[in-house]
Amino acid sequence: MVLLLFSIQQPSSSSLITSRLAQCSVRTQTASPPPQSLSLNPNNTNNPIPDPSLTCALQCQHFDSCSGCSHEWNLHRPLILDEATDFFSNLGVSNFTFDTCRLWGWRCRAKLAVRGTSMNPLIGLYQEGTHNVVDIPFCRAHHPNINAAVELLRQGIIELDVEPYDEDEGTGELRYVQMAVTTYNTSLPAAERYRNGKVQVALVWNSRNENSPSSEKLNALANFLWRNSGSSSKVHLIHSVWVNFQTSTNNIIFGNRWRHLLGERDFWEHVGGIDISLAPSSFGQANTRAFDSLLQKLHKYVPYGASVTDLYAGAGAIGLSVAVARKCRSVKCIEINKESKLSFEKTVSRLPKHVDSNISWHHADTSIEPFSWLEGSDVVVVDPPRKGLDPSLIDVLRNLASYARKAKASESAVLKVKEEKRPWILREREASIQIESKTTWEKSQSLPETLIYISCGWESFKEDCRSLLSSKRWHLEKAHGFNFFPGTESIEVLAVFKRASGGSVKKKKTGKKKKKKKSQKGDTLKDERQKKEPSFSL
Ligand SMILES: C[S@@+](CC[C@H](N)C(=O)[O-])C[C@H]1O[C@@H](n2cnc3c(N)ncnc32)[C@H](O)[C@@H]1O
């Protein structure tokens, strides 16, 4: 049985197809020993322990031509791991852990270009440095059912004479396809769910809307997929079929117009202890299992009853799972992509009834007035795109106390919702979702004591981390790596920073004493809350 787990992060929509770097994160106890799963029976002398570089090899026939993976060997130990271990060790975190996660078949979400001809369609990624699409029918990173759905799509294109997109001419019908797998089917035993995942297919169609002359072919293709692998076919592979209409000549994959065509509209996955809904238009982590591991780890760093701000929140998977796991007093999610709002609302509708948090989702740009989102929070979680944190947010995090003083002194209009006049802020607030707690809370003026940074961009993370530490307002307490993107040079990092309450950060203590202090600190928040707010049931 393979015990390794990996996880990947999704590149931005415009760079995903050309990038050789997929985001990756791995988890192990320490960053060095080979995975347990590689050890064969030690009592059997005819069965030597294999070399992990071979047993953890990619063994993918597309490796030389495809840009998706950048290294073939030692998938359980991305090249960057040694550097990451040293980096954290130099900052006083000697127990950096790395979760190797699942090494093959981990990618549950893939965006693929469709090129070539209707007789010979190519469905895959660009060759490094070009816009030549490489067919990758046997991709080892894809969940096997993504490969199966791609083959079905290929048959449909050929049979129905669907014209793949021609970038030079701007002609053709099918530009891209996004395949997302849900592995959450409770009618199956848990052990069988992953391999029986169902695929949500989103076809990116080169027309403005469903009234274009090529719509007949689009419907025929959707029906072909559904007839052959929909819920009433012999092999049920397809969860649903969607279309995204896109005619722009730039590299952006999706346009703004989405339509659900066939199958179940709602797509559910189960991560971090909650059901999450993911529309094809909203951000979703590509490595579902690894993301789940990361969330389980992250929960432990959030004190019970905390107020949490989740910046770069997508559809709120992190914030909402924390709300449930840590019985949060409030969770505020901030996300720039308005398409994630519906998924957030659906996820909220399935939260356990006993959840008693103030929960909100705001369609807003984190880089604009970031302090306004942080005030009143005990914990801030940031999960930015690969480029890292917005400079304005870094600045606020480095100077939280002085921002708080300024806000108080001027009774900043930003903090007074009723008096807010700026149209862009008002628009953001209109778009927000607010679920009130049954308990009435006093407005908190607290500032975050804990910063949890989830990163898929190692280089930007290092820069942001140094910048935060050089302010002397934060110290790095823990760091974990996750193999989100095996076969690439990326890892996903979960780093926990603590804020100095007064002036600069005290020198970090080590050993047993520190441990005791930490757990006391974790309890302190809860205990203080209980004293101040006896009506809040933890
Ligand atoms: C790496 S994803 C993380 C999403 C989410 N935390 C999750 O795990 O599903 C980064 C998210 O940040 C959003 N984003 C990018 N720039 C932003 C900004 N300036 N303000 C708010 N959100 C932003 C993206 O739309 C994307 O959903």
TrEMBL record:
<protein>
    <submittedName>
        <fullName>RNA methyltransferase</fullName>
    </submittedName>
</protein>
<dbReference type="GO" id="GO:0032259">
    <property type="term" value="P:methylation"/>
</dbReference>
<dbReference type="GO" id="GO:0008173">
    <property type="term" value="F:RNA methyltransferase activity"/>
</dbReference>
<feature type="binding site">
    <location>
        <position position="335"/>
    </location>
    <ligand>
        <name>S-adenosyl-L-methionine</name>
    </ligand>
</feature>
<dbReference type="InterPro" id="IPR029063">
    <property type="entry name" value="SAM-dependent_MTases_sf"/>
</dbReference>
<keyword id="KW-0949">S-adenosyl-L-methionine</keyword>
<comment type="similarity">
    <text>Belongs to the class I-like SAM-binding methyltransferase superfamily. RNA M5U methyltransferase family.</text>
</comment>
<feature type="binding site">
    <location>
        <position position="312"/>
    </location>
    <ligand>
        <name>S-adenosyl-L-methionine</name>
    </ligand>
</feature>
<feature type="binding site">
    <location>
        <position position="383"/>
    </location>
    <ligand>
        <name>S-adenosyl-L-methionine</name>
    </ligand>
</feature>
<feature type="compositionally biased region" description="Basic residues">
    <location>
        <begin position="505"/>
        <end position="519"/>
    </location>
</feature>
<dbReference type="InterPro" id="IPR053304">
    <property type="entry name" value="RNA_M5U_MTase"/>
</dbReference>
<keyword id="KW-0489">Methyltransferase</keyword>
<feature type="region of interest" description="Disordered">
    <location>
        <begin position="502"/>
        <end position="538"/>
    </location>
</feature>
<feature type="compositionally biased region" description="Basic and acidic residues">
    <location>
        <begin position="520"/>
        <end position="538"/>
    </location>
</feature>
<keyword id="KW-0808">Transferase</keyword>
<feature type="active site" description="Nucleophile">
    <location>
        <position position="456"/>
    </location>
</feature>
<dbReference type="InterPro" id="IPR010280">
    <property type="entry name" value="U5_MeTrfase_fam"/>
</dbReference>
<dbReference type="Pfam" id="PF03602">
    <property type="entry name" value="Cons_hypoth95"/>
</dbReference>
<dbReference type="GO" id="GO:0006396">
    <property type="term" value="P:RNA processing"/>
</dbReference>
<feature type="binding site">
    <location>
        <position position="285"/>
    </location>
    <ligand>
        <name>S-adenosyl-L-methionine</name>
    </ligand>
</feature>
